[in-house]
């Protein structure tokens, strides 16, 4: 997190973190309607959010951000799961700025948070990548917002003019982290989803849609 002393605004982009609600009973789209690598055939149940829907929703978020901020914007992208969301969000912000006459000077910084092993949140939060942030550790469960709370506490020490949080997905669970979010893509049931840079032990990041991970195959792998 290396930036100067100006009063820059911050949008903190994270990987699993609400507004368009997807109902619990939504089965997703049949995988037969989409193309995907053959070696993933047994691992995916359904296409939960198609790529076009993802992009349309991100454009809406970018429009809101572009309206809310004045002239400077620092985007803190949380790797690895947030990189595609961050990249597409920043691209939309730039396009909207060129077309509207209100252009936000935008800079992107990167940080990596690791709190998951397989599909489970671990007790330790590790911040990886920037030497200035590597000391931060804490209890973490990303679905409830503990990871983001720990990160935000560190961000505010840089005294930014304003801090906002944007996330593509947030899971609908008890103690969900919606109160931490200013810009939310989708609220989803408590399912394990992959694709669009979201992974299972580093697999599935290359898929450009969001899939429901096969629970049958999941149980076999997990044992």
Automatic annotation (TrEMBL):
GO terms for cellular component: cytosol. InterPro entries: HGPRT, PRTase-like, PRTase_dom. GO terms for molecular function: hypoxanthine phosphoribosyltransferase activity; magnesium ion binding. Pfam families: Pribosyltran (PF00156). Residues 55-200 form the Phosphoribosyltransferase domain. One of its GO terms (biological process) is GMP salvage. This is Phosphoribosyltransferase domain-containing protein 1-like. The gene is LOC114454221.
